[in-house]
Write a structure and sequence with these properties.
4-stranded parallel β-sheet; 38% helix; 9-stranded mixed β-sheet; lipid-A 4'-kinase activity; Tetraacyldisaccharide 4'-kinase; alpha/beta; Rossmann fold; ATP binding; P-loop_NTPase; nucleotide-binding; 354 residues
């Protein structure tokens, strides 16, 4: 079941109770975090099980949850196409029921997860919890580079470039390992496996990460999230925002910064599967407030579920009456990103020849 990201992972601001939680919970959970961290570090240290004959570009992050991996993967695929490559995506398909390797074609989110549906609009997309099996399937279909959405901490498939994506405002949160904080493994165990950093947005925590990568002699790049549409439609009516992502508050801030008159907002856990009751509540609120319903592209894709496929279901109606707000990652220095990709491809080619 999807869980909401604990607010105390990312700071000590707010009410006295929230400040107290941010101090007490990490310490209380530290024994579990220590065990989790040791296990994660040990896994990271393992040698890869398989090296593909194709270059593998992994878009990952140091922390649990979002951060912009999927839109970054889409943006990189666009650059790869621009330099004459034929990319294919490899993703785990979180939240989907698929057990074997699946090439996304006519599936819905209940089968392959929401990210896979967005990726499949751009390039051939394969869903596989077994990254090695997924890579082998891609090798057979004519692509010449694999773009892996997530999987940085998975040692199974050798990576030619591990690009870490981080949100500038949240950074590494409190810097502690799950469940005391958002880190998927101790930072000292993750840094040696990271090749480059992409910080999205502006913020002191992002600046600190850039300095850390630069001190290690690794490329540190910047990008922004921008609307992939004319956002003026957000100003037409009052807006009710809803999102089931790692940090819904970030989406709501994006809506407001693009002119939305947000009369209410509803956050749910990452990859949340909306129930009939929740859908009906949102629809009724929109009716009573004469407001439009706006959500993320991922949530909108997920509103088609196998047990809510009747035309008169509230979930189906919510999909019809809500509107996704599309976003895109834009690189501050696109030439630097192209140089990074081209260098990676050259090194991968040399390895395959050798």
């Amino acid at each position: 079941m999807p869980l909401e990201t604990p607010s105390w992972w990312y700071g000590k601001r707010g009410s006295f109770a929230k400040v107290a939680l941010a101090k007490v919970m990490p310490a209380l959970l530290s024994p579990v975090a220590s065990l989790y961290g040791r296990s994660a570090a040990s896994r990271l240290a393992q040698d890869p099980e398989y090296r593909s004959g194709l270059p593998v570009i992994c878009i990952g992050n140091f922390t649990s949850g979002g951060g912009g991996k999927t839109p970054t993967a889409i943006a990189l695929a666009g650059l790869l196409k621009a330099i004459g490559k034929t990319p294919a995506f490899l993703t785990r398909g979180y939240g989907g029921s698929a057990k074997d390797v699946v090439q996304v074609a006519g599936h819905d989110a209940s089968e392959v997860g929401d990210e896979a549906l967005l990726l499949a609009e751009i390039a051939p997309t394969f869903v596989s919890a077994d990254r090695v099996a997924g890579a082998k399937a891609i090798e057979q279909m004519g692509a010449d580079v694999i773009v892996m959405d997530d999987g940085f901490q998975n040692p199974g498939l050798a990576k030619d470039l591990s690009l870490i994506v981080a949100d500038a405002a949240s950074g590494l949160g409190n810097g502690k390992v799950i469940p005391s904080g958002p880190l998927r493994a101790p930072l000292a165990a993750q840094m040696p496996h990271a090749d480059a950093l992409l910080v999205i947005g502006e913020g002191k925590k992002g600046d600190a990460l850039i300095k850390r990568f630069e001190a290690a002699g690794k490329p540190a790049l910047r990008a922004k999230i921008k609307p992939n549409c004319d956002p003026r439609w957000l100003t037409v009516l009052p807006t009710i925002g809803f999102a089931g992502i790692a940090r819904p508050s970030k989406f709501f801030s994006t809506l407001k910064s693009n002119g939305a008159r947000l009369v209410s907002s509803h956050g749910f856990g990452d990859h949340h599967r909306f129930t009939e009751k929740e859908a009906r509540r949102l629809l009724d609120e929109a009716e009573s407030k004469k407001a439009m319903l706006v959500t993320t592209e991922k949530d909108w894709a997920r509103l088609t579920e196998d047990d809510d496929d009747e035309e008169d279901s509230a979930v189906a109606e919510l999909k019809k009456r809500s509107r996704p707000f599309p976003i895109v990652v834009t690189f501050d220095d696109q030439d630097a990103v192209k140089t990074l990709l081209e260098g990676t491809l050259e090194k991968a080619s040399a390895k395959s020849i050798g």
